[in-house]
From TrEMBL:
UniProt GO MF annotations: 2 iron, 2 sulfur cluster binding; metal ion binding; monooxygenase activity; oxidoreductase activity, acting on paired donors, with incorporation or reduction of molecular oxygen
Superkingdom of this protein's organism: Bacteria
Gene3D superfamilies: Ribonuclease Z/Hydroxyacylglutathione hydrolase-like, Rieske [2Fe-2S] iron-sulphur domain
Family annotation (InterPro entries): RibonucZ/Hydroxyglut_hydro (IPR036866), Rieske_2Fe-2S (IPR017941), Rieske_2Fe-2S_sf (IPR036922), SCP2_Rv3818 (IPR057330)
Protein name: UDP-MurNAc hydroxylase
Region of interest (Disordered), residue spans: 501-522
Domain Rieske positions: 451-517
UniProt keywords, alphabetically: 2Fe-2S, Iron, Iron-sulfur, Metal-binding
Length: 522
């Protein structure tokens, strides 16, 4: 998205090239736009380092290096470092949640989210104001609430995510009926979260952006939402408009590549390169044309992945074992061995390697029981090791080029560790979880027949906004995490106990008001 004002232009998250092992492509296709012109901007904003937002090849080739970079306040320097490698030199280091006035009266504010589960160590939203007109590019970010943006004045344009951006549940080795049921739950949660954000901000106009990707490789074609599958987590903008209408939404605006919306305090005028309804009515034809046009790109990428000279076990030991030695919270959170089944070039031979978190080692699989297992092509792991990739989530897992199985609940620590395969990232994540564990939410609220802590134990979402109680279970709609209220146990993942008691019952006695005592459920 490009924002133009009389005081300057801001290019946001230009993504054109395929991401995640050539699995994700932007849809609708934006590669045919005049990027030579669009890249001549005053400011550049990259919300985070996910490769469907940070397109290094495109940034290097098409975006002016004279652009001033609006840099979110992140705990690591990775975003700045990677932009400097691409040739950018002028950085405006913003302070999270502080309004900054730029030249000509243009005002911006970036809210940085910095938990280890926010993007690849960080995600952000951009607020912009010029001459009384305000815009919020929320993008993928999931803030606990939007009160800060609302407090700065009425927002006229609200851009936000509505579609899936994950591998769940498609890659799990489950019966198709179970996949469909889980997918439908996730699809419904995605829309519910979107409606809550829209209702919080009450902007004049709502723009569904940040999704969905499309899948053009024949091996992944089934992930496109073109088969009438109610469990598909990648609904497109036309589906958003239909669902939004069901909840009374009348202010949605769909943008195609090349669309332009001119916004004032009292009006909006949008022009499109083609009829929007007709475009989505012909979605399958557009995807099939894209698939043929992009096929050489996919095949060229696939040809670059094999590195038979790499001893995968040896290299995984060299890279991962020092991090296992340093890890306390993540290793404890994983709590057991994680197995990688690597399928050879012939499609049959399998080498199984275990990352043993309690044993602090990487070794060959020894027929033991494991709770977490991934199956993927050996070539993909070879490539990750070859390029020294520090984030296997922002590469392998988001590619959906794997299958997974687990015994028991989802474990966020597994994915947190594999996005932190560098000392800088690991140390930050360890420190964040250490601080998070020591911090207890002392405020209680009443939801239905229960008194619970106000902030979700997972990522501190405000349960007055996102909490729903059904019987003895509470669901936090921000990320879909569920809790058993009588026991306080998290039903979605490992850890994250919630404090709860039935309304009318006295609060439990505490021992000296210690965090540990305060966190004990009734």
């Amino acid at each position: 998205m490009r924002i133009d004002t009389p005081a300057g232009s801001i290019l946001c998250d230009p993504w054109v090239n395929p991401a995640y092992f050539a699995s994700w492509f932007p849809f609708p296709d934006n590669s045919l736009l005049d990027w030579e012109t669009l890249g001549q901007v005053d400011y550049l904003y990259l919300s985070h380092l996910h490769r469907d937002h940070f397109d290094a090849a495109h940034l290097r080739r098409f975006v002016s290096k004279k652009a001033r970079v609006l840099l979110p306040e992140y705990p690591t320097s990775e975003l700045e470092d990677q932009l400097r490698e691409l040739g950018f030199t002028d950085f405006i280091k913003t302070v999270s949640e502080e309004v900054l006035e730029l030249d000509g009266g243009l005002k911006v504010m970036i809210q940085a989210l910095t938990s280890p589960t926010d993007g690849p160590i960080g995600d952000s939203s951009l607020w912009v104001e010029y001459d009384g007109v305000r815009l919020l590019n929320q993008n993928d970010a999931r803030p606990t609430d939007l009160a800060l943006f609302e407090s700065l004045g009425h927002v006229h344009a609200h851009m936000l995510q509505f579609s899936g951006a994950i591998w769940y549940p498609m890659v799990y080795e489950l019966p198709q009926a179970a996949k469909t049921a889980f997918g439908k739950q996730k699809r419904d949660r995605q829309f519910d979260r979107t409606w809550r954000y829209i209702d919080d901000l009450k902007a004049s106009h709502v723009f569904p952006i940040a999704g969905p990707p499309c899948f053009l490789d024949d091996e992944l074609w089934q992930f496109n939402d073109i088969f009438g599958d109610e469990g598909n987590i990648f609904p497109d903008q036309s589906v958003f408009m239909k669902e939004y209408a069901k909840v009374g939404g009348t202010n949605g605006v769909v943008l195609l590549p090349g669309s332009v919306s001119e916004i004032t305090e009292t009006s909006i005028e949008t022009t499109h390169p083609t009829d929007v309804d007709e475009f989505f009515a012909n979605k399958v034809a557009h995807l099939e044309e894209m698939r043929e046009r992009k096929r050489p790109i996919i095949e060229a990428e696939k040809a670059s992945w094999r590195h038979p000279e790499i001893d995968v076990l040896k290299e995984m030991k060299r890279r991962i074992e020092p991090l296992l030695e340093e890890s306390i919270y993540l290793a404890k959170g994983v709590g057991g061995p994680v197995r990688f089944d690597l399928v050879g070039y012939d499609g049959d031979a399998v080498e199984s390697i275990v990352v043993d978190f309690p044993g602090k080692e990487v070794r060959r699989y020894a027929d033991e029981k494991v709770r977490y297992r991934f199956r993927t092509e050996r070539a993909l792991i070879e490539h990750l090791l070859f390029i020294d990739e520090v984030d296997w989530v922002n590469s392998l897992f988001l590619s959906c080029r794997f299958s997974a199985a687990r015994i028991g609940q989802y474990n966020e620590f597994v994915y947190a560790f594999f996005k932190c395969l560098s000392e800088e990232r690991l140390q930050y994540a360890e420190g964040w979880y250490d601080e998070h564990e020591r911090t207890t939410d002392a405020e209680d609220i009443t939801l239905g027949d229960w008194v619970v802590q106000r902030r979700c134990p997972h990522l501190k979402a405000d349960l007055t906004r996102f909490g729903i109680v059904d019987g003895d279970q509470l669901t936090c709609q921000l990320h879909g995490w569920r809790f058993d209220l009588p026991s306080g146990r998290c039903l979605t993942g490992v850890g994250h106990q919630i404090r709860a008691r039935r309304a009318g019952e006295p609060a439990p006695a505490t021992d000296g008001d210690t965090p540990e005592a305060a966190a004990t459920p009734a």
